[in-house]
Design brief:
Layout lengths: L1 H28 L7 E2 L2 E17 L2 E4 L5 E6 L6 E2 L4 E6 L4 H33 L5 H30 L12 E3 L4 E5 L7 E2 L12 E4 L4 E8 H4 L7 E6 L6 E9 L4 E3 L2 E10 L12 E18 L4 E2 L6 E8 L2 E6 L1 E5 L3 E6 L7 E2 L7 H6 L1
Antiparallel strand pairs: 1-22, 2-11, 2-16, 3-10, 4-6, 4-9, 5-8, 6-7, 8-10, 11-15, 12-13, 12-16, 13-15, 14-15, 16-21, 17-18, 18-19, 20-21
Length: 372
């Protein structure tokens, strides 16, 4: 019995010893880990956030009629340049029957009053010739007649305006002639001949006949997420890229940040605007989609390294790197960092340009991973 126990113990010792020897053999047969190194370099680092939006005119004026009717003739089209006072279109008035009937009744009433005052004037003239009344009474009769005549004339003009939109003597000021109120480019003419239009008044915005803007003064209008709005402020520089215009960037200045956000697709968005420094040689069409890079910070020609080389102390959370001091020998050095663009980070102190930094988190090549 005792011999069996002794044999089992010896067998276990042999197995454990063999396993230990095999482990040491495998460990020694593995290739030693060789760390690569990288050196800092001079970089231009730009810290920025991106907003999406579009290019719009700084001021866009909508031309609306002050009389309802039907478009009779259009004199401009999108892309035309106009000056203030240039003719945009002509409207043919479709009279309102109630208004037309009221104007006709006003003429009849004014005619009755005029005839009555004419008879009174003739009667007073005869009495004055006989010496029955004074000249003052005659003059009063003349004034009453003149007032009735004026009322009759005004009623006729009112009737013409209701019926045609204009009247004799007011051709240049006719409501049927729609003119540009500002100078600029016609962006669009959303109406055609035969379309009905509604006048602009206190109760209705009216039909837009044309949109005019100064295309030399353009702005970027976009939106930023609530997570980014706290990082930006007015007067920050913008770099505008327009999707339809390749290989060109336009400078702008952020001059408006909405004080209130709006919910869109479950996220709060804040509107921003930036005045565009437009290049004279490039024509930017209104409404083109664009992206704005908001420059939060910038550092040119500074000593920098890849942000992936930085390590952080578990306790102090301060950054450090491992610098090579000999063949595969490294020494920890605390560093001071500046701005980062997500790839490179500025080095403000702690290491020099000639230092070789350990690549501590290198990823195996895909081939090596597949082979393993």
């Amino acid at each position: 019995m005792k011999k069996s126990i002794t044999r089992i113990i010896l067998l276990l010792i042999v197995v454990v010893f063999g396993a230990a020897m095999y482990y040491l053999y495998q460990k020694n047969s593995e290739d030693p880990v060789v760390y690569e190194t990288e050196q800092p370099s001079k970089q231009n680092i730009v810290k920025k956030t991106v907003a999406t939006g579009s290019i719009l005119p700084l001021e866009e004026v909508l031309i609306k009629p002050n009389i309802s009717g039907v478009i009779e003739e259009v004199f401009v089209e999108g892309g035309d340049y106009v000056k203030s006072g240039d003719l945009i279109c002509r409207i043919k008035v479709v009279p309102n029957l109630n208004a037309l009937n009221d104007a006709r009744n006003t003429i009849d009433e004014a005619k009755i009053g005029l005839d009555d005052q004419l008879r009174n004037l003739e009667r007073q003239t005869g009495l004055f010739a006989k010496g029955v009344i004074s000249k003052v009474d005659l003059e009063r009769a003349q004034v009453s007649y003149d007032q009735a005549k004026q009322t009759y004339g005004a009623a006729n003009k009112r009737y013409d305006i209701v019926k045609t939109g204009t009247t004799k003597g007011y051709g240049n000021a006719a409501n049927t002639l729609i003119k540009a109120t500002v100078s600029g480019m016609v962006l669009e003419v959303p109406v055609e001949v035969g379309n009905q239009v509604i006048e602009s008044n206190n109760f209705n915005e009216g039909t837009t006949i044309a949109a005019i803007a100064d295309v030399e003064k353009m702005i970027f209008e976009g939106k930023v997420d609530e997570s980014e709005v706290g990082k930006i402020k007015e007067n920050l520089p913008l770099e505008i890229t327009v999707g339809a215009i390749e290989d060109l960037k336009f400078d702008a200045v952020l001059d408006y940040i909405a004080p209130k956000g709006k919910e869109e697709n479950g996220a709060i968005q804040f509107e921003i605007k930036g005045t565009l420094n437009k290049q004279d040689s490039v024509f930017i069409r209104a409404g083109l989609s664009a992206n704005a890079s908001i420059i939060l910070a910038r550092a040119d020609s500074v000593l920098a390294m890849k942000e992936a080389l930085v390590q952080f102390d578990e306790k102090t959370k301060k950054p450090f790197v491992e610098v090579e001091t000999g063949d595969q020998k490294f020494e920890r050095k605390d560093i001071e960092l500046g701005i980062s663009d997500g790839i490179f980070v500025e080095i403000k102190g702690g290491i020099q340009a000639e230092d070789k930094i350990k690549v501590w988190n290198a990823v195996e090549n895909e081939e090596d991973s597949n082979n393993s």
